[in-house]
Design brief:
Layout lengths: L3 E4 L2 E7 L5 E7 L6 E3 H9 L19 E4 L1 E3 L5 E4 L4 E6 L21 H7 L17 H16 L4 E9 L2 E2 L10 H8 L8 H16 L6 E8 L13 H9 L5 E6 L10 H4 L3 E4 L2 E4 L7 E2 L2 E2 L4 E7 L9 E5 L4 E5 L10 H20 L1
Antiparallel strand pairs: 1-2, 2-3, 3-8, 4-7, 5-8, 6-7, 9-10, 9-11, 11-17, 12-17, 13-14, 15-16, 18-19
Helix pairs in contact: 1-3, 3-8, 6-8
Length: 364
């Protein structure tokens, strides 16, 4: 299964299933000497971990990575130093309820990869918790992204994200010209990772109402990076957008990705869409940043701004029409188990991780 990703000197491989013994990652290409602050890494992973808030699944996992290789003690118990060799880590699964999926051995969950996985892998795919298709696999992605975030920070690049909207309820967007690390820290510190706390309360209430209605909600995550040097990236297929997209679409439930104004460009004129250049001392800047910090696939030096759209969680408790794909009959499915009424809040660090890994690959 091609659960590997490569760009330039950075290589990533993710393995495991939702209800298997564990999940893990091998990250190759982080330069030797990179400092890995373990409390910061664990705090980043905690933001994605299940069972921490009222808006997430009740499945509880410690999500503590066991680092097997690629790093040595860095002088104190909180710090490791990357060796420059592959960093391998495993995260044990400890709270699996596989019996919740016994009724679904042949029933295709609408919106899931059960049926297509059955076709692709000749009926041998693991359907428990979604198997290798599960969002559980974003835990090792976030581990790798957490290391890349620290590598980037040591190069003067900061990456962050927030919930831009859920169920049509919007947060305040990043200022595409002036977004800064303080904005990232403010969102990350909140249980609902938003910039506007009042909007966060309304979003949390909407998610809870969806749960009570045995339904789910989709939404959009906005991420940004500041401090990325200008002149990074290559046309035609090695551009920043290409590389970010190639990893961001590996996050389950991502169905749309845009950069800067994105689809909004379709409703603009050129005179409004273009970002006028000016000199700020000896530094080239633009007055606006509709392009999201990328021109011709290459960084302009302005903040990189992206948006990732997530579909509603397909696992809902309402009866749904489906098929028994073994017996070729129609059926009705009532999904049991523990599921997020909205994946978007826990997806925020996943989008940060994807952006960080992509950008780190250009600098490593």
């Amino acid at each position: 299964m091609p659960s590997t990703w490569n760009n330039r000197n950075l290589h990533l491989s993710i393995f495991g299933e939702s209800h298997g013994g564990g999940i893990g990652v091998v990250l190759d290409g982080i330069p030797g000497g990179t400092k890995i602050h373990l409390p910061t890494l664990r705090a980043f992973m905690e933001r994605r971990a299940p069972g921490r808030t009222s808006t997430s699944t009740k499945r509880k996992e410690a999500d503590l990575p066991e680092i097997l290789s690629g790093a040595l003690p860095g002088g104190d118990e909180d710090t490791l130093i990357a060796c420059g060799t592959p960093i391998a880590a495993v995260i044990r699964n400890t709270d699996t309820h596989s019996k919740d999926y016994s009724q679904m051995a042949a029933l295709a969950r609408p919106g899931h990869g059960d049926y297509t996985g059955h076709l692709r892998y000749n009926g041998f795919n693991d359907v428990r918790g979604g198997g290798h298709f599960s969002a559980r696999l974003t835990a090792p992605l976030v581990f790798a992204g957490g290391i890349c975030k620290q590598y980037l920070s040591q190069r003067g690049v900061e990456v962050g994200a927030h919930v831009l909207s859920i169920g049509g309820i919007g947060d305040k967007p990043f200022d595409p010209v002036r977004v800064c690390a303080a904005d990232f820290e403010a969102a990350a510190a909140r249980q609902m990772p938003v910039l506007d706390q009042a909007a966060g309360q309304r979003i949390a209430e909407a998610v809870e109402q969806a749960r009570l209605n045995q339904d789910s909600l989709g939404g959009v995550v906005e991420a940004a990076a500041v401090g990325m040097p200008a002149g990074i990236g290559d046309p035609m297929f090695g551009g920043i957008e290409n590389v970010v997209s190639s990893i961001a679409f590996g996050i389950p439930a991502v169905k749309g990705l845009s950069f800067g104004e994105g689809f909004g460009f379709g409703e603009m004129s050129g005179s409004l869409a273009n970002d006028p250049f000016y000199m700020d001392g000896g530094e080239v800047k633009t007055e606006t940043n509709h392009a999201g910090g990328i021109l011709g696939g290459i960084t302009s030096g302005m903040p990189i701004v992206i948006q990732a759209a997530f579909k509603p969680t397909p696992s809902i408790s309402r009866p749904q029409k489906t098929i028994d794909y073994i017996n070729k009959t129609d059926a009705i499915l009532e999904i049991k188990g523990r599921h997020d009424p909205c994946v978007v809040p826990r997806a925020v660090p996943c989008v940060e991780a994807a952006l960080a890994i992509a950008l780190a690959s250009f600098l490593a």
